[in-house]
Amino acid sequence: MMDNETKLREDVVPGRNSVMELLKSGREIESIYIVKGELKGSITKIVAMAKDRGIPVKEVNEIKLDNMTGFANHQGIAAVTSAYEYSTVEEIIKNAQGHDPFIIICDNIEDSHNLGAIIRTAEAAGADGIIIPKRHGVGLTAVVAKIAVGAAEYMPVARVANLASTIDELKKQNIWVYGADMDGQNWCSTDFSGGVALVIGSEGKGISRLIKEKCDVIVSLPMNGHINSLNASVAAGIMMYEVTRQKMKLNSKNFK
Questions:
Q1: Which of 69, 129, 137, 188 has a CA that sits 20 to 30 A from residue 255's CA?
Q2: CA–CA separation, 191 and 59 (whole Å)
Q3: Which of 85, 89, 109 is nearest to 166 (CA)?
């Protein structure tokens, strides 16, 4: 009998035929996992189809795939589906009609709990949408949706192939890009008026070099303890609410 740790997750589809049919259906797929050394036969065709659709394919050991599928007969392959449909960057910008856009960019956030918490806080803080990369980061999985506690129903999330070029497009629309990272200017003395895209880096590594170079401003939180960084979702929450505070102050004389 399977315990809670080995139970098949609701967003995991194991088996060659099942994954093939999932691809044919056109449903959103986060990623496909194959056991190392199994790239042959029908799996080769599946991988080719996945690459045509821009779906990440990851090689893992058999133990990891066993655990993901609850020891089901996975035949060396499994797919992880999306819990929600993705939006587009254009739709996120459209959501901001009537006010300056406020967008969160997640640069390679790999922890489901962090992305779920960021989505929840972004919705509460009044952000217009979130942008994540197709590769090197977690997507809208069932785990992320659970952590977001309903916020994923309301917060548009766009998944893009090239984060750097997306930032360039945002800049063309007069949106300033602020990166939350070390060695930047003080967060609470930074002017966040106008259109804002706030970049949150990955756990441990922070913002990648190219994305950091694309940022107009780097902002930092004070680190007065013995550690020099915060959990990604915690840092994101603090920054988001400073942006919200400033925007509310501009729009309401009674804001305190």
A1: 129
A2: 44
A3: 89
Q: What rounded mean pLDDT belongs to the chain?
A: 88
> How far is the C-alpha of 50 from the C-alpha of 6, rounded, in Å?
26
Sign of the torsion angle spanned by Cα atoms 43, 49, 50, 51 = positive
Is residue 224 within 8 A of residue 159, CB to CB? The reply is no
Q: Which of 55, 54, 57, 52 is nearest to 36 (CA)?
A: 57
pTM reported for the whole predicted model = 0.82
Task: Please tell me the distance from the alpha carbon of residue 196 to that of residue 103, in angstroms, as a whole number.
Answer: 6
pLDDT-based confidence at residue 255 (cuts at 50, 70, 90): very low
Q: Which two tokens stand for residue 238?
A: 């603090």
CA distances for 78 relative to 11, 16, 40, 43, angstroms: 10, 8, 15, 10
